UniProtKB/TrEMBL annotation:
Source superkingdom: Bacteria
Keywords carried by this UniProt record: Membrane, Transmembrane, Transmembrane helix
Organism name: Melghirimyces thermohalophilus
Annotated TM spans: 21-43, 55-73, 80-103, 109-130
InterPro entries, alphabetized: DUF3792_TM
Pfam families: DUF3792
Signal peptide: none
NCBIfam families documented for this protein: TIGR04086_membr
Protein name in the entry: Putative membrane protein, TIGR04086 family
Amino acid sequence: MKQQQQSNIGESTRPYLRSPLLTGVTVVLGTVLVGSVLTTLLLRFTGIAEASLPYFTYAINGIALLSGGWMAGRRAGQKGWMYGGITGILYVLIVLIIGFLAFDATMRVQPFLFTVCATGLSALGGIFGVNTDPR
């Protein structure tokens, strides 16, 4: 009886998100935030030209989507491609909503291409994440 109570206490105090999608989107947004700060510091304190900024943006988004999909797939434990893909779609929706509300951006072909690439990258991360599940 004591052993069962101790395992319940340990499980309830673990500090992690239970939802695979929420975990994935949180990882994507956190990675984008850290990558953006590092890029800002690189541009400020080194001789890197601002013309190379799009390459940094693509790399940061790619790494963030792969890692977010990986975490979503790992948390889900099954159907990693689906959870990773949905994580990518949610990230794209967040970016499009922010772009529309903050910058009054209009719809063009680029958001569609961004959606396809983001869904594919995060689905690939989800596939890898399921295969590294510790369970």
